[in-house]
UniProtKB/TrEMBL annotation:
Residues 5-334 form the FAD/NAD(P)-binding domain. The lineage of its organism: Bacteria, Pseudomonadati, Pseudomonadota, Gammaproteobacteria, Lysobacterales. Residues 353-462 form the Pyridine nucleotide-disulphide oxidoreductase dimerisation domain. This is Dihydrolipoyl dehydrogenase. Gene3D superfamilies: 3.30.390.30, FAD/NAD(P)-binding domain. It comes from Dokdonella immobilis. PROSITE patterns: PYRIDINE_REDOX_1. Belongs to the class-I pyridine nucleotide-disulfide oxidoreductase family. FAD binds at K58, T151, G152, S153, D319, M325, L326, A327, H328. Its main location: cytoplasm.
Length: 474
């Protein structure tokens, strides 16, 4: 048995590495175990998010947006360019450099905070003992007073469209195409499908997205998704709803897809296929039989509102537990659990976790949708305001979208804020702060917002709740 720790974290993604750093800051002897291996074959901290998720996808989104603006958007500004080309290898190389910068940054943070990094696959055993198998097959055991499970999630694989890393890929594969595919098929019109579909569409691919659900982005507010769907259609994204993929056969000429929709069986041929139908908790092989930790029917670790498993000293956070599979949600849970272990008051409010989709226009929301408020029988009022009436948005030539605020009809407390438009990933923070402080629509309406800024759309939407928006007819 190796040395004992106060806190042993399993997983070095946004939930795990943040938990480890916070625990160390609080004076606890901490180690973090992770088995992720980077493209260079070496251990890489940061989990899915930093290596093959949030960070690299945003790097490609930015590169593809720059190219698309050069070839399609700059003419309105009087800027012209001829025969513009994209070097995919350089673009992917830039993405890899950014990834290495951030994963290396976590290594430095671990050293600065005296967190011990342990590479290998971890299995939790009884008595808060963790067995770690390294890349050479050697097994070591570590003990801890507290163990935090932060193993994250992995892509769901379809049995009839298995990942081969070349033709049929997951999110990681779609980040590393060597060239722009002529025809890209995407299964799933969720966050990953829309973002990566947008990347390759901007670079010239013909993108077809098949979504099994009849409604587009059912988790978001209907008024927002209606605008988003319209804009994506203008961009040439072919999104087919109510479609169920039944077969994917790789041949010499491409991948032959068979799917069914309201009209019956259909076929489609593509050159690359991205399967993005969701993610599942990465808990396979994690638990020995006698740990006392329970998994639910979706393979997630069961926890209470404080992320405690019910077993002394055992906690779980991030994608492998209930709640949205979002990096920032996992990070906040990591901080909260570290503080609880140290005897402090850690807490995460899952009702105010913001969601963001980094398409163009961006989509962001926090709190309840109008449909949810209706279903729960809550009296409410709404106010909305379009970016087309915002001076900054017009100057940027990015006028698509709106801000919508839902407030309680009697108390005026904000129940949800929904946005589609330019940089709403940044604007949503104001809504989160307001809701955390139990703010009302009138509170937002009375705050002075700088002019000209995109944030004025939030201000006007708050005014519109009381039918007193200044720059549109109420």
């Amino acid at each position: 048995m190796s040395e004992k720790y106060d806190v042993l974290v399993i997983g070095a993604g946004p939930a795990g590495y943040v938990a480890a750093i916070r625990a160390a800051q609080l004076g606890l002897k901490t180690a973090c175990i992770d088995d992720f291996v980077g493209k260079d074959g070496k251990p890489a901290l940061g989990g899915t998010c930093l290596n093959v998720g949030c960070i690299p996808s945003k790097a490609l989104l930015d590169s593809s947006r720059q190219f698309h603006n050069l070839t399609h958007g700059f003419e309105a500004h009087g800027i012209s360019a001829r025969d513009a080309k994209i070097d995919v290898g350089t673009m992917v190389g830039r993405k890899d450099k950014i990834v290495k910068q951030f994963t290396g940054g976590i290594t430095q943070l671990f050293k600065a905070n005296k967190v011990t990094a342990i590479p290998g696959f971890a299995t939790l055993k009884a008595g808060r003992v963790v067995s770690v198998k390294d890349s050479e097959g050697k097994t070591s055991e570590y003990a801890a007073t507290n163990v935090i499970i932060a193993t994250g999630s992995v892509p769901i694989e379809l049995p009839f469209a298995k990942f081969d890393g070349k033709h049929i890929v997951d999110n990681a594969g779609a980040l590393d195409f060597e060239s722009v595919p002529k025809r890209l098929g995407v299964i799933g019109a969720g966050v990953i499908g829309l973002e990566l579909g947008s990347v390759w569409k901007r670079l010239g691919a013909e993108v077809t997205i098949l979504e099994a659900l009849p409604d587009f982005l059912a988790a978001a507010d209907a008024d927002i998704t209606k605008i988003a769907a319209r804009e994506f259609k203008k961009q040439g994204l072919d999104i087919r709803l109510g479609t169920k993929l039944t077969k994917a056969e790789v041949g010499k000429k491409g991948i032959a897809l068979t799917y069914s929709d309201a009209k019956g069986e259909q076929t489609l041929e593509v050159d690359k296929l991205l399967v993005a139908v969701g993610r599942r908790a990465a808990t396979k092989g994690l638990l020995a039989d006698d740990t006392g930790v329970k998994l639910d029917d979706r393979g997630r670790v069961e926890v209470d509102e404080h992320n405690w498993t019910g077993v002394e000293g055992l906690w779980a956070i991030g994608d492998c537990v209930r709640g949205p599979m979002l990096a920032h949600k996992g990070s906040e849970e990591g901080i909260a659990v570290a503080e609880l272990i140290a005897g402090k008051a850690g807490h995460v409010n899952l009702d105010t976790v913001p969601w963001v989709i980094y398409t163009e226009p961006e989509i962001a929301w926090v709190g309840k949708t109008e449909a949810q408020v209706k279903e729960e029988g809550i009296p409410y009022r709404t106010g909305s305001f379009p970016f087309s009436a915002i001076g900054r948005a017009v100057a940027m030539n990015e006028t698509a979208g709106q801000v919508k605020i839902i407030a309680h009809a009697e108390t005026d407390r904000i129940l949800g804020v929904h946005m589609v438009g330019p940089l709403v990933s940044e604007l949503i923070a104001e809504a989160v702060v307001t809701m955390e402080f139990k703010g009302s629509a009138e509170d937002l309406a009375r705050i002075c917002h700088a002019h000209p800024t995109l944030s004025e759309a939030v201000h006007e939407a708050a005014l519109a709740v009381d039918k007193r928006a200044i720059h549109k007819a109420n």
